[in-house]
Amino acid sequence: MARLLIVDDELSMRQFLTHLFQRDGHAIRVAENGRQAMAMLREQPADVIISDVKMPDMGGIDLLRAARELQPEIEVIMMTAFANEQTAHEAFLLGAFDFVHKPFDNNLLKEKVARALQKISIVKEKQALQVENEALIKGQRARGQLRNIVGRSDRMQSVYQMIETVAQVQSTVLITGESGTGKELVARAIHDLSPRAQKPFVSVNCGAFTETLLESELFGYMKGSFTGATANRKGLFEAAEQGTIFLDEIGEMSAAMQVKLLRVLQERKVRPVGAHEETEVNTRVIAATNRDLSALVKQGTFREDLFYRVSVIPMELPPLRDRGEDIAELAEHFIKKYCEQTGRAISISGPAMRLLEGYSWPGNVRELEHTIERAVALERTEMVQPERLPEQVTNYSQTRISSDLELPPQGINLTAHLDQLEKTYVLEALRRTDGNQTNAADLLKMSVRSLRHLLDKHGIRGLTAQMRDERRHETIPRRRSADPYPRRRTEDFDEQTEQAASASESS
Prior knowledge:
This protein is α/β, with parallel strands linked by helices and 507 residues long. The protein folds into 4 domains: 119 residues, Response regulator (Rossmann fold), CATH 3.40.50; 169 residues, P-loop containing nucleotide triphosphate hydrolases (Rossmann fold); 74 residues, Helicase, Ruva Protein, domain 3 (Orthogonal Bundle), CATH 1.10.8; 83 residues, Orthogonal Bundle (Arc Repressor Mutant, subunit A), CATH 1.10.10. Helix 3 links the parallel strand 3 and strand 4. Helix 2 runs parallel beside helix 3 and helix 13 crosses helix 15. The longest helix is centred in the N-terminal third of the chain and has 41 residues. The termini are far apart.
């Protein structure tokens, strides 16, 4: 069933055509003239218009022109009782599907309507295939780009959703996060998922250039504008025309460059160094920084108006320590990457993976990637061992503060609290070593002399002998020795050494 709109100023013709096409199951609406037909089209679209050419108050040619502007995919069949080649030619130029002369053969008119509907069906199928193909290409591009951004944590799921959302708009994006969190990867993903994906993506590190060089890099220069300018050169804003420019470390820009960048963002025009005229640019800007721009604004080193211009859509990338559940997946991703480059097949051992997951990664994902690259290059077995990891990873000992420790509203005596915490750790070290001061000092990474100072400070030196006695009584049953010269135990020697040291300190 199709939607037909019949337009004719003769009532009998409208009734005849309605009866003719209703028998085929089509939905029919009728209008007396072009103006009434346009009002109907604005309320509800039609598939085919069958219209007379000569009508009062907006004729068929004017209706054809207006209908095609309102609904470009509509097909229009014109009818006329007056054979006029000029009128027919004008109708075809305006996009009429066909032309019939009154009186017409009913079957011929029905055939023309059927062919018009077939054309509409083919066009819709092509459009659907095009949309499906674009969606498929977009999905493949998304998978291809996002596969370099690894992680299944909740924090990363939020990042993925944000990327897909901001990719469809043209607003400026400010990506913040610590060094090594993948800000440029996110910027590239936004570009590759956007309508600008087929245009250039240009990246520039604003902290890598002096003020003069950065200006000429971004905006270009004219021949003779400075020494060495032997020819005109386009800047990166023009090189990224209709695409995206990524301004990394934007917080490193000088005050003068901030003013010039602000004007570009406001006017969408650049002025090359040495030029007198400006050039319009259509380039999307994505900026990034590992610094707190709002704090720089308060300090007066970053312009407040520029801050609001670049942070229309802010995105914050989480550090790797806040998404520890992604470390294993990232490690496997990088191992696969560097194994493909070297043509080797290496996995990672359980102990090595536990060391990776226990490290704080101050350099974030970049540091993890370099660690894996180093391990794959040095490993000679089929599995990365802990020995192939850097010393800062293998020797890392992390002390976490329990999440239930909070500063009470009334405050806290920090000195007394730290003294108590110190005493607690000392007692725990002595408990684990059964009162052996040498081993306890090793656990606390201090000298025996420093440990004894803490024992005296907290008045617990006497507990060491008591702990040794309790341990000895638990492990060695009391019995009379048949040997008149029993061997001296290590604990006894340690105790006597302690007593001698105490006597020496007293003297």
